[in-house]
Structures are given as structure tokens and as C-alpha cells.
Specification:
Distance between the termini: 36 Å
Number of strands: 5
Shape: globular
Helix content: 25-40%
């Protein structure tokens, strides 16, 4: 199964970073393509997008200033299948992308993604005080996976915080 392409541009408003592509994303070549993933509904309800987008339109969000990448490129059924070596390599590659493209905000879609990237533990939702890459704001949001037990309204409220201080 193939990795999916990043959608990157210089000085994005928000770069969304996931764990890794789902098997469905690997099949389709689009971010957050698993029908049980709530990402597209969450960012619409959080008023980050003017309408509800579909995974097939992920590249169109560059026009809104939003980009997509993952800490690990290999598609898997669950994030639990990602190895420590893949996280270590992904951490270095992700930092390089952030340093190169300098997004204003990097939104880590999942606390574990941010922990794997930053090496920090016990992080809280929202903006982080000390960014790994100076000059880039780091925002930690819940995973949008359908496996997450948080109520969608709670997740949407956290995503709304991206806008409140952007």
C-alpha cells in the first residue's frame, strides 16, 4: 500500500498532522478518507471551513491555507501498528517539513502524535507553551478517529480554540 501525498505550501495558516494514513486513505490517496473518521465534520463544525469538505477534496484546502501531513507515512489499520523506528524517522522528517514550510500553526490531530513528535508527556489540549520549532505555534487536538471515545461536541470545542487565538 502506498503512502499518500502531503499537501504543503509555505506559510500555511494551519498544517494538520495525523498519526499515519488509514488503509482507506492508502487506497484512495486522500487524507482522512476512512468513513468512520470524523475529521471533515469536526473542522466544518469548528468553523474552520466554510462548508463540509470530503476527503477527495483534501488538496483544495490549500486554497484556505490548510495543509496535511502525517508523522508516519505508512498506512496501517491502527496507530498501534506504528513502530518506534517509524516514529523516530517521522519525527525528524516532520520537524524538517515544519522548519522548511513555516506554517503559522501546526495542529497535531491526536495527543499521541504530539507526544511522539515533541518527546513530551502529559500535554494538554490546545496551544503549547514552548514550540519545538521556534516561531511556529503548536496546537494539540484530539484524534478525529471514530475509535476515540470523546463526544464529538467536546472535540469540536477544542478545535474551535485554533481560531480563537490564531
Amino acid at each position: 500500500m502506498n503512502s499518500i501525498p502531503d499537501h504543503l505550501a509555505h506559510e500555511l495558516s494551519i498544517l494538520f498532522v495525523g498519526y499515519n494514513p488509514s488503509l482507506k486513505s492508502g487506497e484512495t490517496g486522500h487524507h482522512y478518507a476512512n468513513p468512520r473518521n470524523r475529521f471533515w465534520h469536526i473542522i466544518y463544525r469548528a468553523e474552520l471551513t466554510p462548508r463540509l469538505y470530503r476527503a477527495e477534496e483534501d488538496g483544495d484546502l490549500l486554497e484556505l491555507g490548510y495543509g496535511f501531513t502525517n508523522i508516519v507515512a505508512r498506512p496501517t489499520r491502527t496507530a498501534a501498528e506504528i513502530t518506534a523506528e517509524e516514529y523516530a524517522q517521522g519525527r525528524d522528517e516532520l520537524r524538517h517539513k515544519i522548519e522548511r514550510y513555516k506554517p503559522k500553526t501546526v495542529c497535531f490531530v491526536g495527543k499521541g502524535v504530539y507526544e511522539a513528535y515533541s518527546g513530551r508527556r502529559d500535554v494538554s489540549w490546545g496551544y503549547q507553551r514552548e514550540p519545538v520549532v521556534p516561531g511556529v505555534r503548536e496546537f494539540v487536538a484530539p484524534s478525529s478517529s471514530g475509535l476515540v471515545r470523546m463526544k464529538i461536541d467536546e472535540i469540536v470545542d477544542i478545535f474551535k480554540q485554533i481560531c480563537s487565538t490564531q
